[in-house]
Design a protein that fits this description.
Elements: H1 5-17, E1 23-27, E2 30-35, E3 38-45, E4 52-57, H2 60-67, E5 72-76, E6 81-88, H3 96-109
Length: about 120
């Protein structure tokens, strides 16, 4: 199933408003937004619920606090949560201010993130 282009446009627009240089990579059945050649956030469609979710790379220091939000769930690919990564449900990003909040968490962590080995 392809990603939701409207959702991707919402992310792009916030990055443009913040003057964040980014690139995009298709992955995880969605789009990953790369900032400074590092995975920052992305779109994803939950295969069970068919719901759009925002994949956020927020780091381990924000991870537990983020999970206190009812719209935040651990990111799991192999049945094991990936520390420092979360999904935000559609309900948690309907409001533009909420989407901006989660994207800002990703951007705040980005300078601390390690680049993937090529």
């Amino acid at each position: 199933m392809p990603y939701n282009e409207t959702f991707a446009i919402r992310i792009r627009n916030i990055f443009y408003e913040k003057n964040v240089p980014f690139t995009e990579k298709k992955m995880f059945s969605g789009i990953c937004f790369m900032v400074d050649d590092k995975m920052c956030c992305g779109t994803h469609i939950d295969k069970i619920t068919n719901e759009d979710v925002l994949m956020c790379r927020i780091g381990e220091s924000e991870y537990e606090k983020a999970l206190e939000n009812e719209n935040c769930i651990p990111m799991e690919f192999t049945g094991k949560p990936m520390k420092g990564y979360v999904y935000i449900t559609e309900n948690g990003i309907k409001n533009p201010k909420d989407l901006d909040y989660w994207l800002q968490l990703c951007l705040d962590f980005n300078p601390l993130a390690k680049k993937s080995k090529k």
